[in-house]
Amino acid sequence: MKCAAGWQWNDVYPAPAKLNLFLHVVGRRADGYHLLQTAFRFVDHGDRLRFAPRDDGDVVLLNPLPGVAPEDDLTVRAARRLQAASGTRHGVTIGLEKRLPLGGGLGGGSSDAATVLLALNHLWRLDLPRRRLQEIGLSLGADVPVFVFGRNAFAEGIGETLHAVDMPPAWYVVLEPPIEVATAAIFGAPELKRDSAAIRAGDWRPGFGGNDLQAVAVARFPAVAEHLRWLAAFGEARMTGSGACVFAEFAKQAEGQAVIAQLPDGMRGWLAAGLDCHPLVNLAVDGPD
């Protein structure tokens, strides 16, 4: 394995978490996919990735996640999809520092995949436009495109139709219940509300709506309900994505710090600032497809 000049293992590429500030299910397609409306906000906490080039064309994950075969890991799949789409002969060894929980609704795996696409598009000097990277990302999962898009967004469809939105500064307390929630189990629940009224993207404002998936998760996972109850004592608490993580928004850092200081023993949580855009947004350019 040879390292190119200026491309070292100590170059760390962030994969930030996302929060769904609201999430409504507004219908269902004929193929079974749910039609959603949601607002994505990036926060300053997430996984970290490092990359080292290979001259043999292989994609190697240095530290596979327990229970996840390397070939099934979204980081490896993203790199291989990028190879196939570009025809490059470059390879890479990927180091992943996993800080976001699996099955938490924070978009960890999707964010990791997007960081792979953004970083390798830059490091392999492929210069694919952002729109093409978003298309590759959508083939990996519905949440990947927003991380490539790189801006806080109002999303529609299955999450692929994105409208950039400005969001005010805010701090978020995020709690991590010690469980994994399978997205398919929540969306497959017969009691899931699937008929929320759609709104126009331009009509969305911070504070609007709720999470249609939350009631299902609360009924089926007592830990989600417990964490929501505790956090609700300090402000409006809601679940992100299909769970399990829950969050509350605060205008000032000190307010969030005061909540974190009161976490009961055995309850895991953290405080993060809301971001204006993805830290790697400039690694792709907007241009023709």
In percent, how helical is the residue content?
25-40%
Distance between the termini: 33 Å
Globally, the shape reads globular
Provide the structure class. Answer: alpha+beta
Under the CATH scheme, the architecture is 2-Layer Sandwich
CATH C-level: Alpha Beta
Count every helix, treating DSSP H or I runs of 4 or more residues as helices: 8
Total domain units: 1
CATH topology, anyone?
Answer: Ribosomal Protein S5, domain 2
How many β-strand runs? 10
List the secondary-structure elements in sequence, H or E: EEEHEHHHEEEHHHEEHE
Beta-strand content? 25-35%
Could you report the average pLDDT, rounded to the nearest whole number?
94
The largest β sheet comes out as: 6 strands, mixed
Unreliable stretches: 1-7
Radius of gyration over all CA atoms, rounded: 19 Å
